[in-house]
Each structure stands twice: as structure tokens, then as C-alpha cells.
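Fold this complex.
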Amino acid sequence: MAEFLQFAFSGLTVGAIYALVALGFALIYNASHVINFAQGEFVTIGGMATVALMTGGGLPLLLAIPAAVMITALVGLALEKFAVEPAIGRPGGASVVTIIIITIGASIFIRGVVQVTLGKDFHRLPAFSGEAPIDILGARLQPQSLWVLGVTLLVVAALWWFFGRTRFGKAMLATSHNRLAAQLVGIDTRLVLLASFGLSAALGGLAGILTAPITLTKYDIGIMLGLKGFAAAILGGLGSGPGAIVGGIALGLAEALAAGYISSAYKDAVAFIIILVVLFVRPSGLLGGRSTERV
Amino acid sequence: MRRLLDARTGGLLALALIIALLPLILPNKFYYDVAIKTALNALVCVGLNLLIGYAGQISLGHAGFFALGGYASAVLTARYQWNGFAAMAVGMAGVGLLAFIVARPILRLRGHYLAMATLGLGIIIAIVLNREIPITGGPDGMTVPALRLGEWRLIGTTTWYWISGGVLLIAVWLALNLIDSGVGRALRALHGSEVAAETVGIDTTRYKVLIFVISAVFASLAGSLFAHAERFITPTEAGFMRSIEFVTMVVLGGMASTYGAVVGAAILTVLPQLLTKLHDYEHLAFGAVLILVMIFMPKGLVPTLQNRLRHLVGGQPR
Amino acid sequence: MSVLTVENLSKGFGGVQAVAELSFSITEKRIHSIIGPNGAGKTTLFNLITGIYTPSSGRISLLGDDITGLPTAARAARGIQRTFQNLQIFFNMTALENVMVGRHLSLRPRLLPSLLRLPASARADRETEAQAADLMAYVGLGKWLDADADAMPYGALKRLEIARALAARPRLLLLDEPAAGLNAVETAEIDELIKRIAAGGTTVVLVEHDMKLVMGVSDHILVLDYGRKLADGTAAEVRANPDVIRAYLGAGAA
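Structure:
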């Protein structure tokens, strides 16, 4: 039991991070049908920027965190403004593959910038509130895990409020359902797209900050996190917010349990094996709707 | 048709000429090696372009097939003393079979779901190659025996330059033939409109599976040749970034253009060699180049330049 | 003899019945029209006949064989071809290649001969090309042979779809609004083309809004309203039917 709990704690923690990244994918996908392969790099920026602001800039953690989230959000806005919009704003738009290559180019570019400015080493962020583990039924829970889960819950609640209660949130939701109709009722869909990049970058950055004390951070940690977040978003059904959260938690738990009970060597493969099986059986993900093509 | 035929023979002749004359300006072994890598990457891309450019199906996992071919050659010749050509053939058959088995469920998927599935497949292959250390040597990779043709050991960069150049030429010829046949038209049709393709009687699933398998076999062959040419292989060859590199070569050179695939492979194999002069700024510059080309030449280099040329000459389209 | 028989066919999308309990049959070598107001289920019916949609219930048979469960490509192999209301052209090919794709079922291309461009395969390809060129001339697209499909005007693309469908030598040809968006001269040409196709022995089913065209060419008209059969018969019979006048012509004319 203690062992199972231990795996579950670590699975939930990692799963919450995947969920945040997956939410970022879903946000951008809903606004533009773009899959942003630079999503993982937002995670890198969040963690690395916090480290840099604290060690280089001498900022306390409490100031470094919001500053790093802001920086990540700005990078997201810049990505949309200077790389994505010029491509999809062209008459006739751009193909899925073109956009995929652009965001991949952006991810390589961002990794390059981080590597040049902050180096190739692992960096460590102090845990937010100490490292003395809490004993629960024989399993040890790191206080940082509570931070991860707590902040994720807060973010989900905030997003729920934003999309359900605010005017702009509703506008974003409307755009995701029908872009043309949203334009016709006067919604600035370009602003929506821009905002979705900013918002999902902020989410990614936050995920990177939360996880940095546990997993350490490095210029290229974003690659795997981004891919697994994508897998989580697909698992839950691309574009579905609740799906992204469920998908992220499910992948995190499955990964931790498989690593614990089956083989830790294949831990990284678990997410992709699950996603392949799910896609084979149910091509639109767990919570995704089925779509019929119109002719 | 007459003109198309001429364009085909003309292009093939030009490619053959370039391959034949390039050694005149290649100063040393290092450049030969870059040329070999270019040809083998181009071999993968010619196959991948049939899938992405012509049939319109994306794959973010082709490095997996490339590496499986390479490791089939490496493991079978090094650990089981197989004949290199037999190992190569078994690798191609095995990869073809794997592609065939996964193709049906995978190719039912569209767009981003297909991207995810192929990406997942490639990553799983990479992880297996990394972890099965007793067989593959793990992350450190393994050395590969020389390919033998009877008593003749095929070694040295000049030999491999001619082998990879020759194989590429044949591959381009096969691809051009295929595209300009009923099979090729069926592939392009399902890209243009899947519904219309079904309506005229094309079993689109069958064709998608077919081209997925063919492109995987091309990649496997290239991987086997790569393993023997370099005499060394590591699981990096199966990695996600390697898959991305292949797709990028196809898209950068120009989708639905066989010569575009070759040009894209050449540029993206040579460019990083030039960019190493930038040291730490290499990745940064590479990413920036990708973004800029895709923004300003979304159709890729070769089709864009062809169009410009056509406008300059003022001739008829095609 | 009946080419196509539809029995109790229904198709719902969510709560909407696009086609409801529809039965009719199409006799050979004649021109049939299906008319009805927008949303009457005409295109849905074509999608059901060609297997793009699966019906909620009912049966479709072609020349006596049940084809209800067959995929689209298999129905094409049995002789059904169609055009589309919103063009489904292969814009990544030339006009001629579009029509050559229509010969797919008889060409039956094989992989190895194609890869190696064996003489037999190259010859079959040249024949296909010549046949496609003839068909383009037949529908009046002779001067567009080498054009890229994406460089052609709308009216020409409409005919290109017809040529592509004819290339398969269909028993049954379904035309979905072939005259939509065309001017009077072009419509008259389509009118003449449809008659020529029918005279050549192909059964034509037409969905069309242009009443002049429909009344002029049709041997038989089926009127749909909200997915149900409202009336059928010859042009004169349909025109005289009070239900039709009320539901269809009346709404706009009154």
C-alpha cells in the first residue's frame, strides 16, 4: 500500500505537469488549429528564467517566479507575432506541415538561445517550502508535490472562471467553436490567437517553475515534456480542456506505476505506448468528439 | 507526356552528372563523408516525400525506420556474422512488415493524430534501441563490420561515395517512375481529395498503407547503408530530432518534388557543417533559418524557384 | 429495368432527419432529377448512395445487388460515379491527370511495373492518357489538356468533374448541381452534355436547382421535402401536383 501510494504521489505530480503542458496545447489548438511544437520550450524557459533571475539577478523566489512567468508569456506572444502569424495570415493560409515545421524551428531556436545565454548545465531551483517529506500511510510526499498539485488546481479553477465568466474568455471559446461566426459577431480572432499563445506560454512556464525543484532544469528538458504533454492532449481528445487534464494525470499515473511495477528502463516509452493503443482503438482520444466530414 | 519524359531523363542526367563531377571539387575525406551522408539522407527523403509530399500523410517517426534498418545490418553482421546484403534485405523486409502492421490503424488517423502516432512509434523504437544494451550496445552505439561483396570489403569514403550516389540515383529514378504512373496518380488523388479518390474507385487506405511501407523500406535501406558506410551507429539515429530533420528536409526542399527532397537533404546536411563555425550559435541559427524559409517560401525551395524561373522566362506553366 | 433501388432509407444527424423512410427506383438509360428546397436531403441522398455516409436504416441496391454496406470505392467498381456540389477536384494535378485518375478502375496499376516503368505499364499509361484527352474533348475541355487544375475557371472545373466521372464508364452517374454558378450559355452547354451522356447509355441522376434545365432534360423527377418523397413522375405530372406547387414553387412565387 505504501509503495502504491508512493508511486501514485509521484504519478500525480508528474501528471499535473503534463496536464499544464497539455492545456497549453489545447488552448492554442482551439484558437488556431495549430499544434505548437515549441510548447515544451515554454517549460524550459519558465524554469531556466527563474534560476537566472535568482542566481544572476539576485531576485528572491517570490519575485523571480512571476517575472519568469511574464518572460515566458512574452516569448509566447513573440512566437505568435513573428513566426506563426506571418505564415497563417497569408492569403490561402499555411498547411499543417508548414506550421509544424515553423513551431519546430521555433523550438530549436529557443533551445539555442537558452543554451547560448544560460549554458548546457543542469540547474536547480530550491523547493518552495523546504524538503522535509511528509509521511502519509508510510509513503513519503515531497512538499513540492503539494505545490505542484495545489497550483495546478488553482490554475484549472482560474481557467474555468476565465472561460466561463469573463467576456474575453467566452470570446476565445466562441472562436474555438466557429472562427468565422466569431469574426462575424465582432470578435477579434487575431487577438484571441495572440492571447492563446501568451496564455499557454504562461501555463508552460509555470509548469517549468513548479517542476524545477523536483526534476532539475536544463536547456533541453522541454523536448520530452513537450512531447508527453502533446500525448496527454491527444489522449484526452485534442482541444478539450478537461480532456487535457484527465489525459495528463492519466499519463503521469500510468508512467509512475509502470516504472514502479514493471520496468523503469521503459518509463519514457509508457506514454507513447498508451497513446498508440488509444489511437488505434479510439482515433479521436478519450474525451474527443467524433467528427464527420462534410462534402 | 513527351515533355514530361524529357524532364525526367533530363533531371536524372543532371543528377548523375553532379554525382559524377562532385569528386573533382571534394578536397578531402571529410567532405566525401558529408557527401555520403547527404546522399543517404536524400534517399530517406525521396521515399518520405512520396508519403508526405505526394500522398499528403505526415510521419514524424521515419528516423525509427532508418535506425531499425541500420541496427538490423549492424546486429546481424556483428553479432551473428550474417552476410551484409542478407542482413540489409532482412532489415528492409522486417521494417516493411512493421510498417505494414502499424500502417492500417495509424493511417486511419488524420493530421495531428497521425503526427502523434508516428511520433510515438519513432520514440518507442528509439527507447528500445537505447535500452536493449546487450543487443544494441545502448546509448554508446555499436561498431558495424564492413560490407563484403565476395572477397571485396567495401570500405573507404570514395567507395561509399559511389555506392550511396548510385543508390540515390536509382531511388530517384524509381520515385519518378512511380509518381508518373497510375499508382502515383492515385496517391496524389487521395492527397487532393480523399472523398473524390474513393468515389472514382481508389481504395485510399490500401494506397496509404502501400506508400507508408515503401517509404519505410527506403528509410531502412538508407539506414543499412549508413551503418556500413560509417561503420558505427548510435540510437541518436532513431531520435525524434532525427525524424524532424528528415521531414524538414522534405518540406524545405519542396513537397511533392523529388528533386526538392534531394536539394532539401543536401542543404540540411551541409548547412549544420557550415554552422559549426558558429559554435554555440549553431542551433539558434538553424532554427531561425527553418522559420524564415517556411514563412517566405512555404512551398519549399525547388517549387518556389521553379515558379520564379517560369515567371522570368514568361513560359507556360508546365 | 431498375438500376438503383432505394428502400425505406433513413439518415439522421443528431436530431435532424435528413432523409426519412425514402423509397424510389431509378430506371435504366434515362435522365432522372431529384429536386426540392435547400435542406431537402438531396446531397445527403447522393452521399448515402455513394457510401460516403452510412444510413441509419434502409437498403440500397444496384442492379438487384444489395450495396448498402459497401465502401465507396467498391460501389465505384460496380458502376456508380458522381460529381460534387462543392467541387472535389484534385487541385494538385493537371486537368488531364484528373481525368486519368478516373480511369483508375480499368487501369488497375500495379506497384512493381509502375516502379520500374515496364513497357506494358508505360503503354497502358499512354492509352489512358489518350482516352482521358478524348473525354476532355467530349465535355468541351479540349483546350485545357495541359492546364494545372488550380488554374482553371469554375465552369471548366464543373465539366472536369463530369469528365473524370465518365472516365470510369459508369452505369449510373450522379450529378450534384452541375449548373450551379454557371451563366445561361454554360448552362445550355451542360444541358446538351447531359443529354449526350444519357444517349450514350449512361443512366443520369441529376440534383439541380435550375428548373428550366430540370424540366427540359428529365424523363422522370423525384421531389423531396424534408427528406421525404413529396411526389414523383414526369415533368408535366410534377408541375401539376398541388403538393409540389404548395411546398416548392408556391413558397417563392406567392
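Chain C has a mean pLDDT of 92.
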